[in-house]
Automatic annotation (TrEMBL):
Gene Ontology process terms (BP): carbon utilization
Full protein name: Carbonic anhydrase
Enzyme Commission number, as recorded: 4.2.1.1
Lineage: Bacteria, Pseudomonadati, Pseudomonadota, Alphaproteobacteria, Rhodospirillales
InterPro entries: Beta_CA_cladeB, Carbonic_anhydrase, Carbonic_anhydrase_CS, Carbonic_anhydrase_sf
Binding site for Zn(2+): C45, D47, H106, C109
GO MF assignments: carbonate dehydratase activity; zinc ion binding
Cofactor mode of binding and number, as noted: Binds 1 zinc ion per subunit.
Cofactor: Zn(2+)
Length: 205
């Protein structure tokens, strides 16, 4: 009988510890003593199949990551509500001064399916939060009903929403911050990249 996942995760931590604390202790010392200085903010879906660090082979300290349902960026709305994604974006851009922001979407996204099915109503039956959350991208619904197509357009919508944050627009205008839209086709193992000049996703890697 195979071990429960949490047991394998604990064994995985032992492997991680051996790789960094025993084989590359200087890397850990740098991260502890110098603090984090990631150059990239990556906004990805919470989907268990699209872990950004695994997909990009990133090392500790390289990416500041926000994950939420359907990798969505809300518009700039400084009010009394709880804005977890916006708070992370603010910290990454204003304090960590990342140089690039990547929005990473993917095929077969459950959050995007919820958007296509219930986004217009803004309410998923018997759920308290999902419908309202994904409805922020309902302007993309006219690209449907293909979920993957809506998913790609929602990345463009999130890129537009990033530009509504004044501290992001200022740094982009100054030329020291760059935005990227990536979309991972899981079945084929292809990473599509948004080409803003063409206004479409082009096959990358
Ligand atoms: Zn997803």
């Amino acid at each position: 009988m195979s071990k429960p996942t949490v047991d394998r995760m604990l064994a995985g931590f032992k492997s991680f510890k051996a790789m960094y604390y025993e084989q590359r202790p200087e890397r850990v010392e740098d991260l502890v003593n110098m603090g984090q200085k990631p150059e990239v903010l990556l906004i990805a879906c919470s989907d268990s199949r699209v872990d950004p660090a695994i997909l990009t082979n990133a090392e500790p300290g390289e990416m500041f990551v926000v994950r939420n349902v359907a990798n969505l960026v809300p518009p700039y709305e400084p009010d009394e509500n709880y804005h977890g994604t916006s708070a992370a974006i603010e910290f990454a851009v204003r304090d960590l001064k990342v140089k690039d922001i990547v929005i990473l979407g993917h095929s077969g996204c459950g959050g995007m399916e919820a958007l296509v099915e219930h986004g217009e109503a803004g309410k998923v039956p018997e759920r308290d939060f999902i419908g309202e959350w994904v409805s922020m991208a309902k302007c993309c619904l006219h690209h449907g009903p293909d979920v993957d197509e809506v998913s790609r357009h929602s990345i463009c919508n999130s890129l537009d929403n990033l530009m509504t944050f004044p501290f992001i627009k200022d740094r982009i205008d100054a030329g020291d911050l760059h935005l990227h839209g990536w979309w991972y086709g899981m079945k084929e193992g292809i990473l599509w990249q948004y080409d803003s000049a063409k206004g479409e996703f082009v096959q990358g890697l």
